[in-house]
Design goal:
Shape: globular
Strand order of the largest sheet: 2-1-3-8
Largest sheet: 4 strands, mixed
Structural class: alpha/beta
Distance between the termini: 122 Å
Length: 377
């Protein structure tokens, strides 16, 4: 007689299948945890990345191989000129630098590629051969503007004596003599960076959010004065700059010849990189506590209107008639700046001492600068 084996209960199959799925899910979770732990360990121990608890975003491998932290010597100010071609106000800067100790400053110029400063292109010998050899073509409102700034900083950082880094335009003028400006900047351990929350203009591109959260988005003047450690952050950043290059772009200007096509073009996101990059980068690196959040370069902005563009802001250009002693005194007497978006009044200090806000001013024409030269400003 053959003994029959009772059939397996149909209920046991779902139980076995459920147990198998639980095992697969558990193994998946374990693998995921191990993978994340290995990634975190790599970032924490790899010399390629900063291990600072502040969450800074620059990479160590990109920092200059210059042992300058123990620098002992005469500290210099790096005067970095970002110009279109030549320096139209070179005669005024000639007067400025000729009364300065050459050991206290360095000069760098980013001009158009191939342009050379020599006796045929400038009236001041202080600018001879000061141009960068790796300059690029710069377009206003494009990422090439901040790329040129970074090239200036990289060049200036090669000299460990440079401890302060001032960015100036071809229409900037000094409001004080060299010694006053030198002492003003060297007495402060902070950078001077105009920086405030940008809540109105909508220039933040949500496509940046995976790298740059909106709470870190800042706006301000591109004319900065940086201490050396901050100059390194800007010059060797390779995280935030690519994001700006990809997502922070100027909207094409209105073109009457394109007719209705302008409507589509004006729907594009509008962002001006040089008004946001340094400020946002330093905020991303948790360095705002190390800043005087204001610029030392005065600019007067006015709003103009045209048939094609109703809201357009432009800097005032000071000519001979408006470059009066009274106007210069008015600028030099400013001791605070009000930031509407933050309801913040920034009283101007250097090393905790109240000081005039501005050391430089723009934009000045040649005849306006000539009048300043006559006033011995």
């Amino acid at each position: 007689m053959v003994k029959r084996v009772p059939p397996t209960s149909s209920l046991s199959k779902p139980k076995n299948l459920l147990a198998l799925w639980k095992l697969v899910i558990l193994l998946g979770i374990v693998i995921l945890v191990i993978t994340l732990a290995r990634i975190q360990l790599y970032y924490d121990t790899s010399p390629q990345f900063s291990s600072s608890s502040s969450g800074r975003v620059y990479r160590r491998s990109q920092l200059p191989v210059i042992d300058d932290e123990r620098f002992e010597g005469n500290p210099r100010i790096a005067y970095m000129f970002l110009v279109r071609r030549d320096l139209p106000l070179d005669f005024l800067w000639q007067s400025f630098f000729e009364n300065a100790d050459a050991a206290n400053y360095s000069i760098y110029i980013h001009s158009e590629p191939g342009f050379t400063f020599d006796e045929t292109t400038t009236r001041s010998s202080f600018f001879y051969n000061r141009q960068l050899s790796n300059s690029i073509k710069v377009d206003w409102g494009e990422s090439t503007m901040i790329e040129a700034e970074r090239l200036l900083l990289q060049s200036a950082l090669e000299n460990p004596a440079n401890r302060r880094f001032i960015l100036l335009s071809d229409s900037c003028v000094p409001l004080y003599n060299f010694t006053y400006i030198y002492n003003y900047l060297m007495s402060s351990s902070k950078s001077f960076v105009d920086s405030f929350l940008d809540m109105k203009e909508g220039r933040y591109n949500p496509r940046m959010s995976s790298v740059i959260p909106m709470r870190k988005w800042r706006k301000g003047s591109q004319w900065t004065a940086l201490i050396r450690s901050h100059a390194k952050v800007v010059a060797y950043d390779d995280v935030i700059f690519p994001v700006f290059k990809k997502f922070c772009k100027r909207r094409p200007p209105l073109d009457p010849s394109k007719g209705k096509q302008n409507i589509r073009l004006q729907k594009q996101h509008n962002c001006i990189p040089d008004e946001h990059y340094v400020q946002t980068l330093l905020a991303m690196n948790d360095l705002e506590g190390e800043l005087e959040r204001r610029t030392i370069t005065y600019t007067l902005w006015i709003q103009s209107a045209t048939n094609m563009e109703t809201q357009s802001w432009h800097p005032v250009t000071y000519n001979y008639a408006t470059s009066t002693p009274q106007q210069i005194k008015t600028i030099k007497d400013i001791d605070h700046v009000y930031y509407e978006t933050e309801h913040r009044t920034e009283w101007c200090r250097s090393n905790a001492i109240l000081v005039p806000c501005f050391l430089f001013a723009r934009k000045f024409s040649r005849d306006g600068a000539m009048r300043l030269l006559g006033l011995s400003v």
